[in-house]
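Lab notebook, page 48
Experiment: co-folding of the full assembly
Goal: obtain a model of how the components sit together before planning crosslinking
Operator: M.T.
Materials (sequences as entered):
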Amino acid sequence: MSKYCIGLLGFMLFQLSCKHVQEPSTTRTNASPDALPNIVIFYVDDLGYGDLGVYGAQGVSTPNVDKLAANGVVFTDAHSTSATCTPSRYSLLTGQYAFRNNASVLPGDAPLIIDPGLETLPKMLKRSGYRTGVVGKWHLGLGNGDVDWNTTIKPGPYETGFDYSFLIPATGDRVPSVYVENDRVVGLNKREAPLEVNYSRKIGNLPDGMQNPELLRQPADPEHSNTVVNGISRIGFMTGGASAYWNDEDFADVLTAKADTFISEKAEQPFFLFFSFHDIHVPRLPHPRFQGKSSMGPRGDAIVQMDWITGKVIESLKQKNLLENTLIIFTSDNGPVLNDGYEDQAVELLGEHKPGGIYRGGKYSAFEAGTRVPTIVYWEGKAIPGVNDALISQVDLYASLANLTASPLQKGEAIDSKDLSEVLLGKSNVGRSVMVEESFTLALRNKNWKFIDAMPGKKGLPTFIARKGIEDGASHEMQLYNLSLDPSEQINIAKDHPELVKTLKSKLDSIKAV
Ligand code: NG6
Ligand code: CA
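Observation: model returned without errors.
Model output:
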């Protein structure tokens, strides 16, 4: 039993048994096609390692996710591929590290960054007969550039392999503040008020946060001070389309209803649902029934809302007798952040809560809390409940799910993805020995060594990083940490281990060169 396992147990709200796990078997699972499980990926936005009850949260409780954890595999060293959203999502869906496509946080009018010719996780599952759907935040771009929001919006999720989509197109803090269902803006009256979006200059007459701060429910930084919708200023400008604007407080109910409908259709076919939360990203505006339900203000209340949504979707599965054959993966796209553009008291009301647990950094950071995220796998009768300290990456979900659904991978497909299906099911704790972590720089995990590549001049860092005191973890010097002795990455020992640094740097370079 590892010390992470013991440490985690110490934090738990309830007893989980830390089961002994065996070495991985070399045989493939080879599920028979008629027993294919439904698959739900719950993908939370900006949820940190320490943000759930089961991972030691203070000031907020998450009973629904904790229940899933009590009956599932709880990972202590599982990672999103990147410390920000777009690259993590790119990797999850393509099985490739996002640096191969220079993927970084996208504006709301960016073109689709997944080449429609590329194989993807949903396309792979479709090859095995799955019906596929995505509900929630997309943030992978739409269209080919210069998207016209008043007509069919293509390419998008459909070309990426999703039969059904209901989207927040980019993020809650970016325009357009409208839902897109399949390839159309929902509720748009394009004749009366065509919708236009611009990320370089103000268009139309809607108020903006800079000129009309008195309209704002949450004061915002300059980057988030463009068009005001629902009393919240956003990134980017928008005009027209008023009949289609979302109400942020309704996200929980709207998205769970869409998930429920998707789950209900075509019982004869297995489904894959990518449920992509808006919570707990900014702007944090949970429904009034969740307001004040934590001691941490809107950020904590958004965690409560996220937990409710998770419970609600699981309840839908249960009611339809689908839960027993549904593989559930619950995780987050990157680590935690407090002030990410809006004054919502996330810093002031934090109390004893540690969003990144014992880990250093958070969203945007090369340190561990940037990518080490809560991860739970549940599959009744198939996944063995317990705590698992294997090193795994979300890029591995592709090959692992391919194995679990007996879908052979084609040549060149999901090149960075490793089949860790035995680990996911809690049957092995032997994960990766080597894994890339992306942030403004690249880092390499080799077992418990952590190498962070130098970033000369910190070129490319956005100005808000320094302004908000966000710990990016990048340095003009190479960094090396021994996570066995120093899990919080306090002491850079690169100078004491020049040979190891050289080896890890060349390992990273060779992965980059693939
Ligand atoms: C940043 C935004 C931040 C958030 C992030 C994307 C500024 C100052 N900050 O650029 O608020 O939107 O992008 O978050 O503009 S993510 O979770 O989708 O990666
Ligand atoms: Ca995110």
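Interpretation: Residues 23 and 470 are 40 Å apart (CA to CA).
Next step: discuss with group before ordering constructs.
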